[in-house]
Structures are given as structure tokens and as C-alpha cells.
Design goal:
about 120 residues, two-stranded antiparallel sheet, elongated, 2 domains
Length: about 120
């Protein structure tokens, strides 16, 4: 049995599409979409309309709960590092992995393993 997920859009069931129309002939109703994979909003919504409906309804609550930004954030030399690479499809698929500083434009080479490691970074807090 496959695990089907329901779209979390608060108005999903109100949109008139053929795939939302379910039930026996004579007693069909529009229902929230049920999918094995949902592609929007981290896998919680069937489409952008439902994702935006959710944010319109619950966005302020979510931001207040998780923490509203109260001070401007600054990009400095210490926290401006991001991972980047060049893919050379003509040259046996060689890649050039590196860290690049968005402020100073400095580049530092890294290995593919370091590139793929989500915990490996050069940013200072």
C-alpha cells in the first residue's frame, strides 16, 4: 500500500478540477488532493496556489511562532562564503568545486566530498 499524503492547502478542496472530484455517481464531491508526492512547499502542497493559500492563512502565526526577524542581517566577508562548481561536459565531466566569497570574490578549491557535505562551510557566525 502506498503512503498517500494530503495537500495542506486550506482551500484545496474548493478548486474545481477533475482530479479533485471524487465519489460515486450522483454523490460526487470536490476533495483535497491526495498524492504520493507533493512538490511544493517542502512536499506539503499540491500546487503553488495551495501553498500561497496556506501562507496567507497561517503565515503570520508561523513567523511569530518560529521567530520574527527584528534586526537587519548583514553579509560580511566572514559569512559570505558559498559553494559553487563548474561542470565541464566536454572534458570527461570534470568539475571544479570551490568556495566563493560573495563580498571579496576570493575562491578556495574544495573536493567533491566537501561540496556534498551540507555541514562543511567556511562561514563564521
Amino acid at each position: 500500500m502506498s503512503d498517500l499524503k494530503l495537500c495542506q492547502g486550506p482551500k484545496c478542496h474548493t478548486y474545481y478540477t477533475q482530479d479533485r472530484l471524487k465519489g460515486m455517481k450522483g454523490s460526487k464531491t470536490y476533495q483535497t488532493r491526495r498524492r504520493s508526492r507533493l512538490y511544493y512547499g517542502g512536499g506539503n502542497f499540491c500546487d503553488q496556489r495551495c501553498m500561497y493559500d496556506w501562507f496567507e492563512t497561517f503565515g503570520n502565526q508561523a513567523v511569530d511562532y518560529f521567530g520574527r526577524t527584528t534586526e537587519a542581517k548583514h553579509l560580511t566577508e566572514q559569512n559570505a562564503w558559498f559553494k559553487d562548481y563548474d561542470y565541464d561536459w566536454r572534458n570527461d565531466a570534470q568539475s571544479n568545486y570551490r568556495f566563493v566569497n560573495q563580498v571579496t570574490k576570493e575562491q578556495r578549491p574544495i573536493t567533491e566530498q566537501q561540496y556534498n557535505d551540507n555541514n562543511y562551510n567556511l562561514n563564521e557566525r
